[in-house]
Amino acid sequence: MFVEVVFPLAFDKPLLYRCNFGKPLPGCRVVAPLKGKSKIGFVYNTASGIPEGDFEIKEIEKILDEGPIIPEDVLILIRRISDYYLEPPGLFMHIAIPPYARVGREPKRILLPKFVKLNESVDLTGIKLTPKEREAFCILQKQKFTSISELEEVWTIKREVIRSLLKKGVVIPSTCEEVLLERIEDRIVYTEDQKRAIEEVEKSFNNFNVFLLFGPPGSGKTEVYKVLAKKVFDMGKSVLILVPEIALTPHYIKRFSGLFGDSLAVLHSSLSNYERYRIWMDIKRGTKRVVIGTRLSVFSPLVDLGLIVVDEEQEPSYKQKEAPRYHARDVAIMRAYIKGIPVVLGSATPQLETYYKAATGKYKLLKLSKLYSTKVDVDIVDLNVEKRIVSEKLKKEIIERLSRKESTMILYNKRGFYRAIVCERCGNFVRCPSCDVTLVPHREGGNFLLKCHLCGFTRGVVKKCMVCGSERLNARGIGIQQLEDILVREFREARIERMDLDTVTSIYRRYEIIEKMVRGEIDILIGTQMIAKGHHFPNVTLSVVLVADQILNYPDFRSAERTFQLIAQMAGRSGRVLERSRVIVQSFVPNHYSIIYGAHQDYESFFKEEITHRREFFYPPFCKMARLLFVGKKKDRVIYVSNKVYSLLKDNEFGVQIIGPTPLVVEKVENRYRWAIFLKGKSSKHIRLLLKDLPLSVSNVRIYKDIDPIDLLN
Ligand code: ADP
Ligand code: ZN
Ligand code: ZN
């Protein structure tokens, strides 16, 4: 017989082999010759009939598995999405299957107890702990008992750290019973909205259907997921819950682990290979039946999958930004379709395309309203008039909060102390040597460092302009570190904390800040966009977006949508429980609809306005898009190849618009030049037909295909 084999690498197409001694099933591993070497590959399909043509067909050397190691539905999924995204199936195999399972070598078992707790009788004086060990210690202090997998999966504490703590006697083994005792479910009376949503999805348990669970933060969406997950679980089936980012979710995961205990698996990218393999095997065996995870977990080998949930479906982190490019939400929908099961997308600010589908009946819209109706006052401050970043209005409101012992949250999306360093003589900015961006001055300890936010390059302060040699260098712009200084000077008695990539170095650090905030121990929390997401802070009565137009200026058709989402998410942080709260949004374009509707958290009005622009300018959801990326070390080659491809595609028979080629907003990153061509067409089929046979690279220029791009600029 003949079979198609895929190697978990970047090959274009499945390769044909002959097998004379057995019938390897699709999804089984085989050993076969590839470029003169024996390699492990996966049977992708059994070929029907005898292939035609005059070429040599090599023979399979060995069949490694009796039954498929990739479940059938995942294999079908990979076939479909590799067609859809025009990516080689081998790349999807590569990410979907953990390395240990690919090579078929069982890792050495690492002996550790399943559960641990702090040793209360140990004398800590004289015991030195590393920073990571201290972190684990603090987590255990709060959690009392916990499982090793929780430490590793939820808190990203590595096994070596736990082993070392066991050796030092700080931690001792515990038992499962102790852990489960800690987790008791609250009793909740569901609202009418929640009950209806649950019923609707339940009716569809045996059919494919896409639901959009649309409700503001705190409207009880997560409670709905929990109930649905429990029902499916009790039917003996499995549940997949996708979340944008694990770091946001220690609280979130707690709510599920109370329900599912040992059957819950948490998957994210910072797991060790061993741990990933172990969980993957448990999922495949059916001992773990509820998976919470980031985009990659959409490929989990769940047994008898019965429900998929995609929380915060609008989040861009669901899109993989390197090959193989795919969108986990859309892959989840395809997977649900293949299995004939429901998929629930949840959001307060859905991606426009999603809401459009719900509004036009393709998806089912399930609306939840806020659990408590609170009054929110909205102020939009015109920065053209105000000029100062901490405006008078803002100052007055913060002072009021301080006297009432309530908290303020301020979003300012600029890392670093200043924004850039400029030469006063020739006007040149100090730039990263390998990227097309300015270096950002950060203050660390008492010193300043210049950092590239794209490639991580770091250097000390420069004394001279690299272009003209002048020493008249000047720092420009306010970064979030400087904002912190300004606030500390302005409000001397306030307890101020900052939350950005530079202060939040681990999930635990983030959790600590969140905990302090929940306890009301922070008066003013400033942060980059990471503070806009997912926390419940009862004490916050003032949410501030300091400069709202940062994203709005990007030349991307989604910039209004992104601006709206960020402001609405931030506005949704306050006014959860307390009677009255306030949102202040400062902007240079205070009349822009995305800013006004964002501040009022008015999604439906925003949608009505935005959809007319999308229709007028022929953008999604009214067209399908793709992007071709041309990446290479030689600029002239990149330009040459992209122009060549442009003229090749330009006059196509499908009427697909070809736009470009143009450099990306940041043309050079890590010494690679990046140009793009955009395609807009009525149907994604036409676009894919045009791009299908484009080579992966031409004269040292890589060509990447990005189907349904969500970010046109990077
Ligand atoms: P969302 O996911 O929409 O942000 P959650 O499900 O997290 O909302 O609910 C917010 C808070 O309200 C949680 O603490 C949750 O336990 C609680 N909650 C949810 N539904 C109800 C309800 N029907 N009655 C009381 N509290 C509820
Ligand atoms: Zn750089
Ligand atoms: Zn100069």
Any key phrases for this structure?
714 residues, alpha/beta, GIY-YIG endonuclease, Rossmann fold, seven-stranded parallel sheet, 32 strands, 24% strand, binds adenosine-5'-diphosphate, binds zinc ion
State the helical fraction. Answer: 25-40%
Beta-strand segment tally: 32
The total count of helices amounts to: 22
CATH structural fold name of the largest domain: Rossmann fold
Main sheet record: 7 strands, parallel
Counted up, domains total 6
Give the topology.
Blueprint: E1 2-6, E2 15-18, E3 29-34, E4 37-47, E5 58-59, E6 62-63, H1 72-84, H2 89-96, H3 99-103, E7 115-118, H4 131-143, E8 145-147, H5 148-153, H6 159-167, E9 171-174, H7 176-181, H8 192-203, E10 209-214, H9 221-234, E11 238-242, H10 250-260, E12 264-267, H11 273-285, E13 290-293, E14 305-310, H12 328-339, E15 342-347, H13 352-359, E16 364-367, E17 375-382, H14 383-386, H15 392-404, E18 407-411, E19 420-423, E20 440-444, E21 447-451, E22 458-459, E23 473-476, H16 480-490, E24 496-499, H17 507-518, E25 524-527, E26 540-545, H18 559-571, E27 580-587, H19 593-599, H20 603-616, E28 624-632, H21 635-650, E29 657-669, E30 672-681, H22 684-691, E31 697-698, E32 701-707
Parallel strand pairs: 2-5, 10-15, 10-16, 11-13, 11-14, 12-13, 14-15, 17-27, 18-25, 18-26, 24-25, 26-27
Antiparallel strand pairs: 1-2, 1-4, 3-4, 3-6, 7-8, 7-9, 19-23, 20-21, 21-22, 28-30, 28-32, 29-30, 31-32
Helix pairs in contact: 1-12, 4-6, 8-9, 18-19, 19-20
Bound molecules: adenosine-5'-diphosphate (ADP) and zinc ion (2 copies).
One zinc ion binds at residues 432, 434-435, 452, 454-455, 457.
